[in-house]
Automatic annotation (TrEMBL):
<dbReference type="GO" id="GO:0005829">
    <property type="term" value="C:cytosol"/>
</dbReference>
<keyword id="KW-0479">Metal-binding</keyword>
<dbReference type="InterPro" id="IPR036412">
    <property type="entry name" value="HAD-like_sf"/>
</dbReference>
<dbReference type="InterPro" id="IPR006381">
    <property type="entry name" value="HAD-SF-IIB-MPGP"/>
</dbReference>
<dbReference type="GO" id="GO:0051479">
    <property type="term" value="P:mannosylglycerate biosynthetic process"/>
</dbReference>
<dbReference type="InterPro" id="IPR023214">
    <property type="entry name" value="HAD_sf"/>
</dbReference>
<keyword id="KW-0460">Magnesium</keyword>
<dbReference type="GO" id="GO:0050531">
    <property type="term" value="F:mannosyl-3-phosphoglycerate phosphatase activity"/>
</dbReference>
<protein>
    <submittedName>
        <fullName>HAD-IIB family hydrolase</fullName>
    </submittedName>
</protein>
<keyword id="KW-0378">Hydrolase</keyword>
<dbReference type="GO" id="GO:0000287">
    <property type="term" value="F:magnesium ion binding"/>
</dbReference>
<dbReference type="Pfam" id="PF08282">
    <property type="entry name" value="Hydrolase_3"/>
</dbReference>
<dbReference type="InterPro" id="IPR006379">
    <property type="entry name" value="HAD-SF_hydro_IIB"/>
</dbReference>
């Protein structure tokens, strides 16, 4: 994949931050984000890339890059696609399975078993709006999928288990997100995270590149140092993969639990909780190190 430019994902400090969007960086219902902007600006000052890693689509995340003043790369559809441009969706690396193929398989399963579920591909833009609180334009973008299908399950728990088994027969899987289940291939946010970091570190360590600061090693004892923020079950593997895991409170049900010492739960929901967790667990230690130098 040498045709892609990794400059925007190379960390000058050796620290990488990957974050989910809905319910993590963005308010779960109102999609508010203003409180996170000062922390994002501080990350830039430290040379730390903030990489969006979401179940959202190319079109949706591209808009959020503009609003948050961020650059590619970004990870879409639960790790299924890594994009290197916010203007050209063809500049990508595909880890997932084609959306049309997934829709065909879901149609076959529905016809065979008559289970009750609704995918985004079954819905009008207005119906997606009603289930997500998105405006018309955003809901239309959410329907433009590449490698995954969000579904609402309206059948029994027993049939949900059978549905998962039917998907496995087609080499697909079902992943629970914050709002929907996601039908997808065998990829996740963690596999895409690792792909980005490995390529970025390889480019950073190229002998022709200028030297970089080893802030990560000096402050945290390792480089690269990976931070991940999430709130849903589809964030679990990403949070487990990271060196520092910051978990936002769940809107419904129990907050996600990650069994490791370097996992911390934010005190407040998004977006305030995101900003405060990044300050407390990342920016304050970095600033303290800078003051000692």
């Amino acid at each position: 994949m040498n045709q892609f430019n990794y400059v925007n994902s190379i960390s000058e400090s050796g620290v990488y931050v990957f974050t989910d969007l809905d319910g993590t960086l963005l308010g779960h219902h109102d999609y508010q984000y203003a409180p996170v902007l000062p922390a994002i600006e501080q990350l830039k000052q430290f040379g730390i890339p903030l990489i969006l890693n979401s179940s959202k689509t190319f079109a949706e995340i591209s808009q959020w890059l503009d609003r948050l003043d961020l650059q590619p790369p970004f990870i879409a559809e639960n790790g299924g696609v890594i994009y290197f441009s916010k203007e050209d969706p063809q500049q990508k690396y595909l880890l997932g399975r084609d959306y049309a193929e997934i829709r065909t398989i879901l149609g076959q399963i529905r016809e065979q078993y008559n289970w009750r579920f609704t995918g985004f591909g079954d819905c009008s833009v207005e119906e997606v709006m009603a289930s997500t609180s998105l405006d018309y334009e955003s809901a239309a973008m959410a329907k433009r999928r590449a490698v995954s299908e969000p579904i609402s399950w309206q059948d029994s728990d027993a049939n949900l288990l059978k549905f998962k088994q039917a998907l496995e027969h087609h080499d697909l899987r079902l992943l629970k997100g914050g709002r929907f289940y996601h039908v997808m291939s065998h990829h996740d946010k963690a596999s895409a995270l690792k792909w980005v970091v490995e390529r970025s570190e390889s480019a950073r360590n190229n002998p022709s590149d200028p030297g970089v600061q080893q802030t990560a090693f000096n402050v945290f004892g390792r480089s690269p140092y990976i931070v991940a923020l999430g709130d849903g079950e589809n964030d679990r593997r990403m949070l487990e993969e990271a060196d520092l895991s910051l978990i936002l409170p769940a809107q419904k049900g129990n907050t996600l639990k990650i069994d490791k010492k370097s996992a911390f739960e934010a005190d407040k929901p998004a977006p305030e909780g995101w900003a405060e967790a990044v300050q407390q667990h990342l920016l304050i230690p970095l600033n303290s190190q800078l003051e000692r130098q």
